[in-house]
Amino acid sequence: MELREFLFEPLKDRSYSFAIRTRENGILSGVARVNELAIDLGLEVISVAPEGSLLIPGMAVLTARGDAEMVTRAEETLMGAIGKPSGVATAAADVVKKASPVKVVCGAWKKIGQAAKGELRQAVITGGAGLRMSEQPFVYLDKNYIRMFGGVTAAVAQAKLFDPDRLVVAQLRGEAQGIVEEARYAVQAGAGILMVDTGILEDFKAVMSAAVADGWRKSVQLAFAGGVSAEELADIVALGPDIIDVGRAILDAPLLDFSLDVEGGDR
């Protein structure tokens, strides 16, 4: 007989109700997964708060009933299904609020391991951030595409051959030439969104100045990325970007704190 089975032997004919409650403010995410796990454990799910619920300390996000072993296993598994996603959703919402009215996207979710990718992707959406640079079909030319083509002009030109009307997004690092020169070449080749991905505000300022001076500011969207932190969002927004790509400041968010407490039992 296993230890847990031995300990719960006197309780085998009893069932217990419990609640998972938040211990801090935030935004709930991971609801689909926590509900699925609860059912897999054999619990009778009584209530589950909706995805995206605004959380305050003490608020119940799930109430359920089961035997002693089920309740113990619930404590081991259910809070893990909502802790990290809720932390990410909360961080995303904070970044979106601080960056308003500039659009925030979080493309780094694609770098997450497969096991957690779906939950964290949903958490970013729940927090109000976008997953894509544009809602219309586009070709994304990252730094490696541009390196392999020997420069942004050839890379954008090849993308345009596939579909002249499709939006092209170019990730700019200023590697083959200065960042402003690279931006100009990208626009001349037909790019519609330029993402200055150096994390250096002076680089973005320079590209913005060129866009205004050359007359293509209104026809091309400008994005900024590169280790963006929540603390520098105000400075970035002041520069006038159309899009800010935020990765680790959202995805590295700490777990939101929840607790599971037995609140009743019967024979």
UniProtKB/TrEMBL annotation:
<dbReference type="InterPro" id="IPR037128">
    <property type="entry name" value="Quinolinate_PRibosylTase_N_sf"/>
</dbReference>
<dbReference type="InterPro" id="IPR022412">
    <property type="entry name" value="Quinolinate_PRibosylTrfase_N"/>
</dbReference>
<dbReference type="Pfam" id="PF02749">
    <property type="entry name" value="QRPTase_N"/>
</dbReference>
<dbReference type="GO" id="GO:0005737">
    <property type="term" value="C:cytoplasm"/>
</dbReference>
<comment type="similarity">
    <text>Belongs to the NadC/ModD family.</text>
</comment>
<dbReference type="GO" id="GO:0009435">
    <property type="term" value="P:NAD+ biosynthetic process"/>
</dbReference>
<dbReference type="InterPro" id="IPR036068">
    <property type="entry name" value="Nicotinate_pribotase-like_C"/>
</dbReference>
<dbReference type="InterPro" id="IPR027277">
    <property type="entry name" value="NadC/ModD"/>
</dbReference>
<feature type="domain" description="Quinolinate phosphoribosyl transferase N-terminal">
    <location>
        <begin position="12"/>
        <end position="86"/>
    </location>
</feature>
<feature type="domain" description="Quinolinate phosphoribosyl transferase C-terminal">
    <location>
        <begin position="88"/>
        <end position="261"/>
    </location>
</feature>
<keyword id="KW-0808">Transferase</keyword>
<dbReference type="InterPro" id="IPR013785">
    <property type="entry name" value="Aldolase_TIM"/>
</dbReference>
<protein>
    <submittedName>
        <fullName>Quinolinate phosphoribosyltransferase [decarboxylating]</fullName>
    </submittedName>
</protein>
<dbReference type="Pfam" id="PF01729">
    <property type="entry name" value="QRPTase_C"/>
</dbReference>
<keyword id="KW-0328">Glycosyltransferase</keyword>
<dbReference type="InterPro" id="IPR002638">
    <property type="entry name" value="Quinolinate_PRibosylTrfase_C"/>
</dbReference>
<dbReference type="GO" id="GO:0004514">
    <property type="term" value="F:nicotinate-nucleotide diphosphorylase (carboxylating) activity"/>
</dbReference>
<dbReference type="GO" id="GO:0034213">
    <property type="term" value="P:quinolinate catabolic process"/>
</dbReference>
